[in-house]
């Protein structure tokens, strides 16, 4: 047996007594699923807690960023955590024989037909999952297009946000899903006078701080939250689309500098927020309509302050749907897409990569 396949520790299932070896190159979650023990998951990176399982015996080696100390005394996140003891006993039911597909986290995928093989995704990916395959046919029949190694992909979305042609998307948190959420959150109810509508793109480390938000009743704000796999998934196109659908302001919330789970997601987000702000300034809407907020784990108060500050600034400004109509002129003819897509042409990703020191 190859060294990387030899068990690093064993997992014992309480209901059956089955003992499963977990090698160094596999997660507990993967081993459980391979053996029919269905465990739900979402992020796949220890950020959401969906895959937590009760530990009956043994000492977990916690590597998640979501469980509280009290929860860690009872549970472990099977997607990233390991075991300090030679064997760990988990409370799970009988294995499933249904063959039902087990949900997995987001994975980047490439549409080769519009890939130009520019290497942007290779430079943007901090896990080495993106590469150029010289055997693939790209745009215009040119040989060489991007490919994603699914085993190495973390689903952060950095490559999708950086791709200048839109050739990369995710299997979850897709561009269409994001737009449909705008329609649901902003199109279902009409705006209320003196109540700014603020869209929040939230990274997985921020929900606790955001959920604790309670608006000042004397200064109302209509807060709409879109969960993202990482703040680095948020691109200029999505931010501008939020305004098109009726948002008065956009906040991108992410980890504190240097603490991004995906290494550079929040750094990338800052650059894009600045770029979008500059573009809004140029067309007369004002850069104060978009901002980046770095939140610690207990960031409820900083988040509340950021939202209220933005809402107060937007409340003093004259809300002008006509102004927005001018910005996104041509909605009926399809020119809206041209305006938003112009961001990509006007700000090529090579310039962005230079800004963050990648090239």
Secondary structure topology:
Elements: E1 7-13, E2 19-23, H1 28-34, E3 52-57, E4 60-61, H2 69-72, E5 75-77, E6 82-83, E7 87-90, E8 108-110, H3 120-124, E9 130-137, E10 143-148, H4 158-162, E11 168-170, H5 175-187, E12 197-202, H6 207-211, E13 222-227, H7 236-244, E14 249-254, H8 265-282, E15 290-294, H9 300-316, H10 321-327, H11 335-346, H12 349-355
Parallel strand pairs: 1-7, 12-13, 12-14, 14-15
Antiparallel strand pairs: 1-2, 3-5, 3-7, 4-6, 8-11, 9-10
Describe this structure in words.
There is one protein chain. The chain is an alpha/beta fold. The protein has three domains: 3-90, Beta-grasp domain (Ubiquitin-like (UB roll), Roll); 108-159 and 163-170, Alpha-Beta Plaits; 173-355, 3-Layer(aba) Sandwich (Rossmann fold), CATH 3.40.50. Helix content is 30%, strand content 20%. The chain contains twelve helices and 15 strands. It has a five-stranded mixed sheet, covered by helices on one side. A hairpin with a 5-residue loop joins strand 1 (7-13) and strand 2. Helix 7 (236-244) packs antiparallel against helix 11. The longest helix is centred in the C-terminal third of the chain and has 18 residues, at 265-282. The two termini are 42 Å apart. Mean pLDDT is 83; it is low at 318-327, 329-348 and 355-359.
């Amino acid at each position: 047996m190859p060294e990387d396949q030899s068990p690093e520790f064993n997992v014992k299932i309480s209901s059956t007594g089955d003992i499963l070896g977990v090698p160094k190159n596999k997660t507990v979650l993967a081993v459980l699923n391979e053996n029919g023990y269905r465990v739900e998951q979402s992020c796949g990176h220890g950020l959401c807690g969906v895959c937590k399982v009760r530990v009956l015996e043994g000492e977990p080696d916690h590597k998640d960023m979501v469980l509280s100390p009290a929860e860690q005394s009872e549970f472990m996140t099977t997607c990233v955590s390991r075991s300090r003891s030679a064997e760990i006993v988990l409370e799970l039911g009988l294995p499933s024989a249904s063959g039902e597909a087990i949900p997995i986290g987001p994975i980047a995928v490439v549409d080769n037909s519009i890939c130009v093989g520019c290497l942007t995704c290779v430079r943007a990916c901090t896990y080495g999952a993106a590469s150029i395959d010289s055997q693939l046919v790209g745009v215009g029949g040119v040989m060489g297009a991007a490919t994603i190694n699914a085993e190495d992909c973390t689903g952060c979305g950095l490559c999708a946000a950086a791709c200048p042609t839109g050739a990369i998307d995710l299997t979850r948190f897709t561009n269409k899903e994001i737009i449909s959420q705008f329609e649901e959150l902003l199109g279902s109810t009409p705006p209320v006078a003196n109540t700014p509508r603020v869209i929040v793109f939230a990274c997985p480390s921020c929900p606790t701080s955001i959920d604790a938000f309670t608006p000042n009743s004397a200064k109302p704000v209509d807060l709409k939250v879109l969960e993202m796999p990482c703040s680095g998934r948020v691109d200029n196109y999505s931010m501008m689309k939020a305004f098109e659908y009726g948002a008065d302001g956009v906040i991108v919330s992410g980890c504190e500098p240097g603490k991004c789970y995906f290494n550079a997601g929040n750094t990338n987000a800052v650059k894009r927020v600045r770029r979008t702000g500059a573009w809004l300034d140029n067309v007369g809407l004002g850069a104060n309509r978009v901002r980046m907020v770095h939140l610690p784990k207990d960031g409820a108060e900083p988040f509340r302050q950021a939202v209220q500050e933005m809402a107060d600034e937007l409340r003093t400004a004259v809300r002008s749907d006509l102004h927005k109509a001018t910005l996104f002129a041509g909605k009926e003819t399809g020119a809206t897409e041209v305006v938003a897509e112009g961001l990509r042409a006007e700000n090529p990703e090579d310039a962005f990569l230079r800004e963050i020191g990648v090239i």
